[in-house]
Write a structure and sequence with these properties.
The chain has 463 residues and is an alpha+beta fold. 24% of the residues lie in helices and 44% in strands.
Length: 463
């Protein structure tokens, strides 16, 4: 289970513990009524009931030294278990509680602990694990959170709601370990309410979402110095379909001086298409024609013709017949010939759209070369393709490098996002180390730090 799913599950479990705790207090702590000495009829006191609310806006004002530790155990002797936890270094253990109905063979166990300033919680947790006192342990911190002074609460297991005014809008809440003081969060809130007031000491809350720690993506334009250019480059191009001998082309490129290796990948990206105009037909004739073409097309599937699919635009009355074929000249010619004959035999007018082929060439050099030498190699590669009738434009050749960058300003703000990892950039072909280039950055960030940055020279991104 990954960290995010684990965090979500544990939040749900802690929420269940809180709910059950509130419910148990509701049933256990109902207000008592006593008759006075004169046996006067007592004034009715409303019964305390459990209420909750979700998505309450909160601001973390303080992180306390109290933590909630959660794990699993098969030791059902609470006194012994608490003693073992204390022996592992937890001097303070409070609010210990079992939960045996959370869908696991072992019992869930939760407790609160207040740490000393010099205590290392992670070391203590490892001690619990190594001594096999608790397993699958996680822990959360308690914080003081400011929430609105007026909140709307909903009664547990009921649609009844109440607007409550808090005397002090600061409440204790369980938050994740990544939460920091000053964070804006969403809080789930539970409490007992008697009349129109919250029963003192019954508020329990935990973080539902940390807004401040949410990763975000933005795009920014800037310029930067090229720090490095890789000893390799790419060419990506799309053209009308033709069969290519990739190995033959690769060997010719490898024979060029200063080229260490070459890899050419080809793929059919758009199938052969027949656009058939049925606008002159009556509706009843169209239905029959569609059925006939579908049946006849399937009968043409062969070793060379892999698939035939149909789509019909009812508004324009245009049928599109798409043909997927094996990547070879023979297969392409067979597909074009057989389906052309099929449509001509039915006296149908059509427009033919050739299939498109994508080629991706990666060239690895023996070492980094100056731009004029790299351009010379590129021109020789273009000649190899031109012999086969393929003209690859210069703009289709790109190189990868690294930019000299340490931060980027988030557009529309004064926030500078720190960049601690090398920024890889896709460059137009023929640049030199030390050149300034205008780039478009895509930045994935969190808490003012870049988690990932990808850059493309603007002259490429605008093509």
């Amino acid at each position: 289970m990954d960290a995010e799913k684990r965090k979500t599950m544990l939040s749900i479990i802690l929420g269940l513990i809180i709910v059950f705790s509130v419910l148990s207090m509701v049933f256990r702590n109902g207000p008592k009524q006593e008759n006075d000495q004169n046996n006067q009829t007592p004034t009715p006191v409303p019964k305390a009931k459990g209420f909750h609310a979700e998505d309450i806006n909160g601001l973390v004002t303080e992180l306390t030294s109290t933590y909630v530790v959660f794990g699993y155990t098969d030791n059902y002797n609470m006194q012994e278990l608490v003693r073992q936890i204390r022996s592992a270094g937890f001097d303070n253990v409070s609010n210990p509680n079992y939960r045996t109905d959370l869908g696991k063979e072992k019992a869930a166990f939760v407790f609160h602990t207040a740490l000393k300033k010099d205590a290392n919680l992670e070391v203590l947790i490892e001690k619990l694990k190594s001594d096999k006192i608790l397993s699958d342990i996680s822990y959360y911190r308690q914080a003081i959170v400011k929430i609105p002074a007026k909140i709307t609460l909903k009664e547990i297991d009921s649609n009844n709601s109440k607007d409550i005014n808090l005397e002090e809008p600061f409440i204790p809440a369980i938050v994740s370990n990544e939460t920091m003081s000053g964070d804006s969060i969403k809080v789930n809130f539970y409490a007992q309410v008697q009349g129109s007031a919250i029963v003192k000491g019954t508020i329990q809350a935990f973080e539902q979402l940390n807004i401040s720690s949410q990763p975000y993506i933005f795009v920014a334009d800037t310029n930067a110095i090229i720090e490095k250019i890789e000893a390799s480059f790419l060419a990506v191009h799309t053209l009308s379909y033709m069969a290519l001998n990739s190995k033959e082309i690769e060997n010719e490129i490898k024979a060029i001086s200063d080229v260490n290796d070459a890899l050419l990948q080809t793929s059919v990206v758009d199938p052969l298409k027949f656009k058939i105009d049925l606008s002159s037909m009556e509706s009843k004739d169209i239905d029959k024609t569609l059925s006939d073409i579908n049946s006849d097309s399937n009968s043409l599937i062969s070793e060379h013709i892999k698939k035939a699919s149909m789509s019909y635009d009812q508004n324009k009355k245009i049928l599109t017949l798409s043909i997927e074929f094996k990547d070879s000249e023979e297969s392409y010619k067979e597909a074009k010939s057989k389906f052309s004959e099929l449509l001509k035999s039915k006296s149908l007018n059509y427009a033919l759209e050739d299939a498109n082929l994508s080629i991706e060439l990666q060239v690895i050099l023996k070492d980094y070369l100056a731009s004029d030498k790299r351009v010379n190699i590129k021109d020789k590669i273009k000649e190899i393709f031109l012999k086969r009738g393929i003209d690859i434009p210069d703009a289709k050749f790109t190189e990868e490098g690294i930019l000299l960058m340490s931060s980027i300003k988030k557009p529309g703000t004064d926030e500078n996002i720190a960049i601690n990892e090398p920024v890889r950039v896709m460059l137009a072909f023929g640049r030199n180390v030390g050149d300034y280039v205008d780039v478009k950055l895509t930045v994935y960030a969190q808490r003012g730090k870049a988690l990932g940055v990808f850059a493309t020279e603007k002259s490429i991104s605008m093509n």
